[in-house]
Design brief:
The complex is a heterodimer of chains A (336) and B (286). Chain A has 336 residues and is an alpha/beta fold. In chain A, 46% of the residues lie in helices and 10% in strands. Chain B has 286 residues and is of the alpha/beta class. Classes of the chains: A alpha/beta (336), B alpha/beta (286).
Chain lengths: 336, 286
């Protein structure tokens, strides 16, 4: 495997943690040595966190924070440059009637749409920490991941060369479920290499686990560890193309892995629930879960994101309700 | 052996389901002589919000059905009401303290009005619409289209006839309805919702709230996703304020009506919640 020739800090650390080269046997020994998930306890904990009452000024803060953490997404076969331009316009000015509305963190598009997103963003393209908007691209034969490694790497390199700041890759769920952990590890590590830019910097890598296809919480926990060991900067629940997509228990579980990894290594990994989060009410449950699991410092664009398209309009409606005092309606927001 | 009676829980009707109030509140419904009759859900502003969301989702399907189909569905409701005459009469006797004959007469009147409005479903467009004469080789046709989501404050002094007289005409054109029932006489409104749930009306087309109109009406009047407001039963409220709030979002508003003739059957009540669309079409194909 070409992966064994790579020398990368993440790989060296993985070797140290695993106690050997990241091949199938070593990874299997490590991942299956992780304690199993108490499913009932996890779901009860998630349900408990979802029952907090967030009102008035806390709610206003939460709504603005949610907007700042959104990856505004369009991942349709029917996407056009025009659709991407209107998405970017919405990302820059979510509510044209209210200039105090923050910008979203990033726009998330297919790789071939990256140049259009970059062009539409213009000077506003950059780090969300600076009040700018990043461009995230899905790559590696999204959403199924069923293509050769060479194509996946080329897909990634193309998106980075076109100006993508973040790459959302999918893991090979077939290989993961078949126990070929070494293959999944190598793919992630090599895609991470492909994220490198000529100037020595690197695009941020989000690893999509597609939890809806992993079947068990134990698998989600193992896949999370695997993705982080292999060098992912973010772990992301879903493509949004498979049901169930993001759920609160699964996100809580992934946050717990991130918390444990931080205790182990001091490194902060991001989490991105994606798909199925459509209401402000649901999104606020995720905010609470993040704050209670890994801490409030994770509530920033480099460590937590929502992958969403219809969520933004609901948040804007709630935001208008808090500022105007009466209920708003979808007629007063853009259709996207 | 004596039998333990099973009292009925009267809940709200939102989106084809029967939830309790989000607030968890209930209020006591009393008979005409003041004794306890039942607990009814006391809807909050959030129930009103949920009802509007359900109504909005239902507009497309209901307004998209053919006028003939809407007429059939509405007529079927009258058929179901006919089978439940005794239940409605019992509730009216208990609530309003009228004689059984008067209660039965009210039920019959309600059913008759429903049938009358059902008949208009595929006919009112012929009366309210028009083929306009124009100075050019075009057909110019005006057709009434439903306004959208209609919020109704039902007449407060009549339990069933008032409710039917306000709800039925809004449904004829294809609107979806959020209705706040009579505060003192809410039981027939929920029973009517049960009839609607077992008929062919899609869930969300009629959403019934019980509780205080004074509390709920301002939220509906200012709600940006409500297209029209029927204040027929809002005479005792600050209805001028409601009308002002409704003006902010350019709602169509019907003002309160009092007395026995309130919401009397008329074509005007149907066309009040329609918008006239005029289209030009070339004659060159002839």
């Amino acid at each position: 495997m070409s992966g064994s020739q790579l020398v990368h800090p993440a790989r060296e650390r993985a070797v140290a943690i695993l106690g050997g080269d990241p091949d199938d046997a070593t990874l299997r020994r490590y991942l299956h040595g992780i304690p199993g998930v108490d499913a009932v306890g996890l779901e009860q904990r998630a349900a408990g966190l979802g029952s907090r009452s967030i009102k008035t000024t806390s709610k206003q803060w939460a709504l603005d924070k949610i907007i700042e953490l959104i990856d505004l997404t369009t991942l349709e076969g029917a996407d056009t440059p025009g659709k991407v331009r209107s998405l970017v316009a919405k990302a820059l000015r979510p509510d044209p009637a209210d200039a105090t509305t923050p910008r979203v963190a990033a726009v998330c598009v297919y790789g071939d749409m990256v140049p259009h997103a970059v062009e539409a963003l213009g000077a506003a393209h950059g780090d969300p920490d600076d009040g700018l908007v990043s461009v995230a691209a899905v790559a590696t034969a999204f959403p199924s991941g069923r293509s050769s490694l060479a194509i996946k790497l080329q897909d990634t390199a193309d998106a980075v060369a076109a100006g993508a700041d973040e790459i959302d890759m999918v893991i090979d769920r077939g290989a993961f479920l078949a126990g070929r952990y070494g293959q999944v590890f190598d793919e992630i590590a090599q895609v991470k290499e492909a994220c490198a830019r000529p100037d020595g910097t690197s695009a941020s890598l989000k690893v999509i686990l597609e939890t809806g296809e992993l079947n068990t919480y134990d698998n989600v926990r193992r896949a999370s560890w695997l993705a982080i060991l292999a060098g992912g900067d973010f772990i992301k629940t879903s493509t949004g193309k498979v049901q169930p997509a993001a759920t609160l228990p699964v996100t809580l579980l992934m946050l717990e892995v991130v918390r444990d990894w931080h205790r182990l290594t001091g490194q902060r990994i991001g989490v991105k629930p994606a798909g199925g989060i459509r209401s402000s009410k649901d999104a606020i449950k995720y905010l609470v879960t993040v704050a209670e699991t890994v801490g409030e410092e994770w509530l920033q664009p480099h460590l937590f994101r929502y992958g969403a398209s219809s969520l933004l309009n609901d948040v804007l409606m709630q935001r208008r309700k808090t500022t105007s005092g009466h209920y708003s309606g979808p007629d007063y927001l853009t259709i996207d | 052996m004596s039998r333990l009676a099973v009292p009925k829980t009267y809940k709200l009707a939102i989106g084809g389901k029967f939830p309790r109030s989000e607030s968890g509140r209930t209020y006591e419904v009393r008979t005409a002589d003041g004794s306890f009759l039942a607990n009814a859900a006391k809807a909050s502003r959030k129930d009103a919000r949920d009802a509007v969301v359900a109504a909005r989702a239902a507009v497309k399907g209901w307004s998209g059905a053919t006028a003939y189909n809407r007429g059939q569905v509405l007529y079927r409701i009258a058929e179901l009401l006919e089978g439940r005459r005794a239940q409605f009469a019992d509730e009216i006797v208990a609530l309003e303290g009228v004689t059984r004959a008067a209660a039965t007469a009210q039920v019959d009147e309600a059913i008759d009005r429903w049938v009358w409005y059902a008949g208009w479903a595929d006919k009112f467009a012929q009366v309210a619409g028009n083929a306009n004469p124009v100075a050019g080789p075009f057909f110019n046709i005006s057709v009434p289209e439903p306004t959208g989501v209609v919020a109704i404050i039902a007449p407060q002094d009549s339990s069933l006839v008032g409710l039917v007289s306000a709800v039925a005409p809004a449904l004829v054109a294809g609107n979806a309805v959020v209705v706040v029932a009579s505060e003192a006489y809410p039981l027939p409104a929920i029973s009517l919702a049960e009839v609607l749930a077992t008929s062919d009306v899609p869930g969300g087309v009629v959403n019934t709230l019980t509780g205080s109109p004074a509390e709920i009406a301002p939220w509906l009047a200012s709600h940006e996703d409500v297209n029209a407001l029927d204040l027929v039963g809002a005479g005792a409220l600050d209805w001028v304020d409601l009308e002002i709030a409704a003006a902010d979002t350019l709602k169509r508003v019907l003002r309160p009506e009092q007395g026995a003739d309130a919401a009397a059957p008329s074509l005007d009540r149907i066309t009040a919640f329609t918008e006239t669309k005029t289209v030009w079409h070339t004659k060159s194909m002839i």
